[in-house]
Design brief:
Largest sheet: 7 strands, mixed
Helix content: 10-25%
Low-confidence stretches: none
Strand content: 15-25%
Mean pLDDT: 93
Distance between the termini: 31 Å
Strand order of the largest sheet: 1-14-13-12-15-10-11
């Protein structure tokens, strides 16, 4: 196992709308949403009623399967509404903020003096346990599991992703406290770019990773450092939430504030805002003009983020909002036109390869419809993992568990194959196929 990983495969998508490295404002929304749908494998049980008073850190939801796993309010205020969908499925709990940001005091602790069980208990009580994701399958980690390692990616290569060094430049001490706590549970691996300030973290194994997207995906990093086999468990935590874990121990408070990058071709003066997860998209109204209802609002990046709509909310794990043009126009002559100077092609079908530094105002147009699979190495050219993505996707479609295991279902989440979906000339929804396969594995193998 090398501590220097140079990935040759991948693709950096040249989309316009990168955020300037400046914090333009602090968003103080009237209402913040707590969405159990952000957490795979979390079956919510409501702990509050409309009208109840809560503090930042007060429990709002518990997991029906494991009542010790709580999700807590990011703000102090009043429970304004419980939002339900079909069959009374719990979609969100809306908290009306009171502006005081009073917090539950969980007590300051030095993680170096705690046991693994003490660390787990603190994370469970505070509501930060759902920040830990368990692989395979990308579900909320089980407190009783024994992971072989914990992985943290200290950079993000997704299109227009928030600059990790800028976002967390002032949080190095909190991140160190966070990894000190996590290291009590299992060995911690941190993957960084060359020259990163996060390479100075102590008590962890540092890996320097270089390459194009998806080099920053923790799943790709795991596959090159410690691949996940059947009956093995690995935990992952984002660097952003590692800082939140550290602040829990150093301040005794639940604090998930973050710098959020507002990006995309439809963004007006893209930059950063100081905000909380669960803020309404409409709180960013000065960044877009949706008079013609032609803007798509994505919580996360344009490849694997969630289309939340203008009435939606920022996801718990996200520190990026991408604003795209919702394209309904038909292109004259389409692919027959050999010029298409405004279109990017990863396969050199157009002349975009002659302008390697050009950025494109990409929208939501597929430029074609879905067709049967093409047997080629299109996927393999952008996926730096030792798996067979075409065969894995087909196995997921066929619901063939044995072949899904054979072709790498334990190693991937949908986001790891997002680039395969982008370059696919057949326009297949690869991420949906992988997600359906993972759901089947959870159902049949749990």
């Amino acid at each position: 196992m090398s501590n220097n990983i140079d990935l040759k495969k991948g693709l950096d998508i040249p989309i316009s709308g990168a955020a300037a490295l400046t914090v333009k404002k602090t968003v103080r929304p009237d209402v913040v949403a707590i969405k159990p749908t952000d957490f795979k494998g979390f079956i919510p049980r409501l702990l509050v009623r409309e009208g109840d008073k809560v503090l930042a850190g007060s429990p709002v939801l518990a997991d029906k399967k494991n009542p010790d796993i709580l999700f807590t309010s990011p703000v102090s205020g009043t429970i304004e509404q419980v939002v339900r969908g079909e069959k009374r499925k719990l979609l969100a709990v809306l908290v009306k903020a009171d502006g005081t940001q009073e917090s539950v005091d969980f007590g300051k602790k030095d993680p170096k003096n705690l046991s693994a069980e003490d660390v787990k208990a603190a994370l469970l009580q505070s509501g930060l346990w759902p920040a830990i994701i368990q692989r395979p399958y990308g579900v909320v980690a089980s407190p009783t599991a024994c992971p072989k390692a914990i992985f943290i990616s200290a950079f993000n290569t997704a299109p227009l992703a928030a600059d990790t060094e800028f976002v967390l430049a002032e949080e190095l001490s909190a991140i160190q406290a966070g990894v000190d706590a996590l290291a009590k549970v299992a060995k911690v691996h941190v993957c960084v770019k060359a020259g990163s300030a996060f390479a100075k973290l102590q008590g962890v194994e540092i890996h320097t990773v270089s390459g194009k997207h998806p080099a920053g995906n923790v799943g790709v990093q795991i596959s090159h450092i410690s691949p996940i086999m059947k009956d093995q468990t690995v935990w992952t935590v984002s660097l952003l939430l590692t800082a939140a874990i550290g602040k829990l121990f150093t301040t005794g408070k639940y604090d998930v504030t973050r710098k959020v990058a507002v990006t995309g071709p439809e963004a007006i003066e893209p930059s950063y805002v100081q905000a909380l997860p669960g803020i309404p998209v409409k709180a960013l109204s000065e960044y877009y003009n949706n008079a013609n209802a032609d803007v798509r609002f994505v919580s996360g990046d344009c490849l694997s983020g969630e289309n939340v709509g203008e009435d939606g909310y920022l996801g718990f794990f996200d520190n990026q909002v991408t604003l795209l043009h919702e394209e309904t126009e038909r292109e004259l002559f389409g692919w027959i036109n050999p010029i298409r100077s405004k279109q990017f092609s990863s396969s050199r079908s157009y002349f975009s390869w002659l302008c390697p530094k050009k950025k494109y105002n990409m929208g939501t147009n597929f430029h074609g419809g879905p067709r049967p699979f093409l047997m080629s190495d299109v996927y393999g050219a952008v996926l730096p993992m030792e798996i067979f993505p075409v065969y894995l996707a087909k196995a997921c479609l066929a619901q063939d568990i044995e072949k899904m295991e054979k072709f790498g279902i334990y190693e991937v989440l949908p986001e790891d194959l997002a680039l395969c979906e982008f370059v696919d000339p057949s326009k297949n929804d690869i991420q949906a196929m992988i997600a359906a396969g993972i759901d089947l594995m959870i159902k049949e193998m749990a």
